[in-house]
Amino acid sequence: MDKNLHIEKFFFNTAPIWQQVPTEINERLLATSISAKYKKNTTIVYDYEYAAGLYCIKKGFVKIYSINALGGEDIVFILGKGLVFGVSPLLNNEKCGVNATAMEDCEIEIIPKEIIKLELEKSIELNQAFIFYLSQLVKMLNIKLLDFMRKPLAERVALTLLILDKKLSLNGTLVFSREDLANFMGTAIESLVRQLKKLKTENLISVKGRKITIIDYVGLTKIASETP
Asked: Residue 83: how many CB atoms within 10 A of its CB?
């Protein structure tokens, strides 16, 4: 089996909403957007709040997470430029249910929910785009819970590096806190650090402070795809 094909399903890429609707609708929506800047570690929206609109990431990385019973973060997704969040609570007129926090200085375009709802009343294409987005979101959540989280830790660590590198177009260099990486893959920081040291010893990655550089994609892919 092609190992690259095996791990592709874990890349959590959301549907390209803006590529599925007519240009004139895109232009109308973006013309009404409100540009906001968020400093690193600033929470953009809390789980108990209602979405102000559709959040479109123009610059930076945003983590989507819930708080577990121990007070820690369970990171569901890490999103980057061009991706959106807030679709489900926007359409259902419900509280967000998860938190969104800037992992670095971010620029977000917020399209007001009133504008989105007006366009939904007129545009079949926009409705179809949102339905497709939500179906892909459910698919990605199932994959993470049923496949990703059941993998041995060594595979999850290797797979996480590959996922974030490809999804966020990082060109092999990842700069994230160990805490965020551990919370994304569902493990303790100490366990993550041990696995990173092992990958470094095997010359698959290099580590300098928070920066992790992928050296051997083939070797990392092999580890990430050991479990069918």
From this structure: 21
Where do the domains of the chain lie? Answer: 10-146, 151-224
Claim: this prediction has a pTM higher than 0.85: yes
Q: Has residue 3 got a pLDDT over 60?
A: no
CATH for 10-146 (2.60.120.650, 2.60.120.10, 3.40.50.300, 3.20.20.450): 2.60.120.10
Half-sphere exposure of 73 (CA within 13 A, CB side): 23
Q: What is the CATH number of domain 151-224?
A: 1.10.10.10
In angstroms, rounded to a whole number, what is the distance separating the alpha carbons of residues 62 and 106? Answer: 8
- Which of 111, 115, 109 lies closest to 53 in space, CA to CA? 111
Q: Is 111 helix (H, G, I), strand (E, B) or coil?
A: strand
User: pLDDT higher for 139 or 53?
Assistant: 53
Of 99, 98, 68, 100, whose CA–CA distance to 186 is shortest?
Answer: 68
- Compute the distance between CA of residue 104 and CA of residue 107 in angstroms, rounded to an integer: 10
* Residues 6+ away with beta carbon under 8 Å from 83: 14, 56, 57
pLDDT digits (tens, 9 = 90+) for 78-90: 999 988 999 999 9
Q: What region, left, alpha or beta, does residue 204 occupy, with left being phi > 0 and alpha being psi -120 to 50 degrees?
A: alpha
